[in-house]
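RECORD CONTENTS
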Amino acid sequence: MKMYVLLPLCALFTLTQQVPSRDRCACELTNTEKAFPHDKLSTAEDNASKCNSNITPQKTLELESLLLGLEKRLPQLQEDVSMLEREDDGDLYGVISLQVVENELLEIKQLISRLRSTTLEHQLLTNDTTKKLDDLRAEMRELEIYDTMQVVKRQQDNQRLKKNLDQCRSGFQATSQSTQHSYGLPQYHTTHQGNYPHGHLLNITWPRMYTAEEYPGPYKYGAWGRDSKPEEGKVKWYWLVMMTYRDRYSNYVRIYSSLSALIVGKSDPEISPSNPTTNTIQGPNVVLYGGALYYNCYNKGAVCRFNVTIKTVTTLQLPKGTRFNSKGNFCHLDECYPFTDLDLATDESGVWVIYTTTQDFGNLVLSKVEEGEPMTLGQTWYTSVYKQAVTNTFMACGVLYATRYVNKDMEEIFYSFDTTTGMERFNIGVFINKMSANIYSLNYSPVDQRLYAYCDSYLVSYKVFIKGQC
C-alpha cells in the first residue's frame, strides 16, 4: 500500500519539473563582431619568437670581435716584419722570426676568411629578418582592429611612461657602490648588468702554442709570460718558471731576451738553487712586474718579491686566516691544482693577489699589492664566488676574471668583478680553447694584451680583445 502511494507522487514531481515557469524568459544573443583570429595571433607569436632566437647579441659580438681582432693583428704583423728585418742573420734567429711572421699571416688569413663568411651570413640574416618583420608589422596592424576597447593601446602607453620613469630614476642614482669590508662576516654584492666604466673583455683568439726547448721534460706545473711593466730595453723579454719538485716549488725564474730565445732555450736562471726556504717559489701562480718576480713564499701565507737585478727578496704578510699550503686551491670536479692558494696577477695598474681566508668561507678575496719598500697591502675587495669552484683567475683593466673547467678541450671565463664599481657578473660566457686538459696558470700582460697560459708543459698564449680604454 505504501509503495502504491509513493509511485504517483514521484510521477507528479517529475511532471511539475517539466512544466515551464511563467516567470522565466529567454533572450537570443547575436554577436555582430568578427570572431577573433586566434590562429593568426599564434602564428605571429611563433614568427616573432623565431626572430628573437635568430638575432642575438652574441652574433653582433662575434662580428665586433673579428673586426677588433683584425685591427689589432695588422700592426702586430708590421712590428714582427720589422723585427725580422732587424734580426735576420741568415741563420737560426732569422728562420725563427720568419716562422713567427708566417704564423701571423696564416692567422690573419683565417681571421679574414671568418670575417667574410660571418658578414655574408649577417647580410642574409638581415634580409630575411627584415622581410619577416614587415610581414609581422602588417599582421599586427590587422589584429589591432579587434582591440575595440583599446586595451593594448593603454598598455603601450603605460610601458612608455614606465620606461621614461626608469630613465629619470637612473639619472639620479650613483654609479658606484661601496666595497669596503666590515670586520666579521664578509660583505656580498648583488649581481648587476651594465657597462664597465673602463675597458671590458669581449673575446679571445684561438691558442698559439710553443714548447720550451730548454727543459722539455715532464714539468706539469709552471707559468710564463712577459714583464707587465718592463724596464727600458727589456720590452721584448719573456720569463718562465717551472715547478721542479713534486709540483710544489721551484728555485729558478728563467729570463729570455726574446721569444726566439725562449723557443731555442737560451736563458739566464735567477734565484738560488738551494733547498726550500722562505725565499723559494711555491705554486705556479707567479708574475713578473717591474723587473721583480712576485710569488707565494714557501710554506707561508705571504707574498714574496724577488728583484731580478739586485737579487733581493722582500716579503708581504697577508691577513690572518689566509689559506696556504694547498688548503685553498683552484679546483674542478675531477681534481684540484696543488699549491694554488695564492694567485698573483698583473694588469695596467700593477700587481694583485687573489686568495681566500677562513673568515670569508672560502670565497675569493682580491687585494692590491702596493709597490715600494717595504711592500704593503692596498685596498681589498670581497667577492661571492667560491674559490674551489674556480680553475684560474686573472686581472685586466681593473677587472677580476675567473674561469671554470668545461671539458678537456674548453675552459670558460664565466665571472667578473669590477673593482671600480663593485659589480659582479656570472654570465661572461667567453670560452678558451685549450691545447691540454688543464690550465695551471693564467696571466694577462697589458704590454701586448695577451693571456699567457701554462698547460701540462705547453706554453700557450691568447690575444685578448678589450672594448674601451683602461
Remarks:
- The longest strand covers residues 376-386.
- The first helix runs from residue 2 to 18.
- The chain is about 30% helix and 30% strand.
- The mean pLDDT is 78.
